[in-house]
Amino acid sequence: MQSEEELKAQSYRPLIVVASGVGLLIILAGLFFSALLPYAGEQKIFTVEKGEGFKDVANSLEAESLIKSSLAVKFYMLLSASAFDLKPGVYLIAPSMGAIDIISLLTKGDRQIEKITLPEGSSIYDMDRILSENYVMPAGEFIKYGEENNLEGKLFPDTYEFFLNSTPAEVAEKMEENFKTKAGKFLDLSKAEDLEKLIVASLLEKEVPNMEDRRIVAGIIYRRLAIKMPLQIDATICYLKEIETKSSSCYPLSSVDFKIDSPYNTYLYRGLPAGAISNPGISAIEAAINPVKTSYLFYLSDPVTKKTIFSETLDRHDQNRVKYLNK
């Protein structure tokens, strides 16, 4: 015959088993939800291919270090009924989003949009860097397309919304249309004289920040062209280096750079460079169209104040170089 203590122990045993089971479930649930939480890591472009199953997607997410556990994500996708609702597409994903938001994004399937600002004075080399850094397209693609289609100067600098994984043609078309809308009332690029004004505007955009100074420098450029004096504009040397290196970085300039044989070298060749050296904004375009005539032939920028210093003679210009540039 069992003692009272033994009977009590037998009655508690199911409770202990249940409690142990509940405790284990709590631990497993904690581990499961912990595996779905955000964590620090690098954002990446992630592609879901057509016909790719949820298991493969989860494995790829883990392989790219975008989620902590593919097993937990597979289980979550089955529980949330999203396992068979993943949409093919290109996505910009960061581990900091967390697995639940990542899966939600993958079920929407829309092409993601990035809002990007392309500053005034950006060249196609600058634009290529900005576009690739924001995952709009791989590095080098926009440079190639821009060079092949002679787009420098014709892409309006502005803030845009682009799809991830866009083609160069899609991006360029949007910027060209914006140029026609905003700059078309100032320039007709089917006219040779307006193409020249666009080149002058691209020089002003890179050389002078102030609108009134830009108009004066525009007058200096046109005056130098009229008397067949070399323009000797440093920004053109910088641009020809961009052409050679396919990079938006050109400084510092060396004495060797000024000897590079190129139709963009305004120290070696008289006249305007072979084409625009940047994509100017409206202010620079208006300055190129409305130059101010003066007796000046020379100018430089004070590196400290950014003020443009003008002079009529080479002697005075040399004095200004010593005063402002050789401090």
Overall tally of domains:
3
Uncertain runs are 15-20
How is the main sheet built?
2 strands, antiparallel
- Rounded Rg: 31 Å
The percent range for helix content is 40-55%
The beta-strand count equals 6
The general outline is elongated
Distance between the termini: 108 Å
- Average per-residue pLDDT, rounded, comes to 88
Helix-strand makeup class: mainly alpha
Walk me through the structure.
The strands form three sheets. This protein has a two-stranded antiparallel ribbon. Strands 3-4 form a two-stranded antiparallel sheet. A two-stranded antiparallel sheet has the order 5-6. The chain has helices at residues 4-35, 54-63, 70-79, 99-108, 124-133, 141-148, 168-183, 192-207, 211-226, 234-245, 282-289, 314-325, and strands spanning 44-48, 89-93, 113-117, 159-163, 298-301, 308-311. The longest helix is centred in the N-terminal third of the chain and has 32 residues, at 4-35. A hairpin with a 6-residue loop joins strand 5 and strand 6 (308-311). The chain has 327 residues and is mainly alpha-helical. 49% of the residues lie in helices and 9% in strands. It has three domains: 41-110, Dna Ligase, domain 1, CATH 3.30.1490.480; 113-183, Dna Ligase, domain 1 (2-Layer Sandwich), CATH 3.30.1490.480; 192-325, no CATH class. It contains twelve helices and six strands. The chain starts with a helix and ends with a helix.
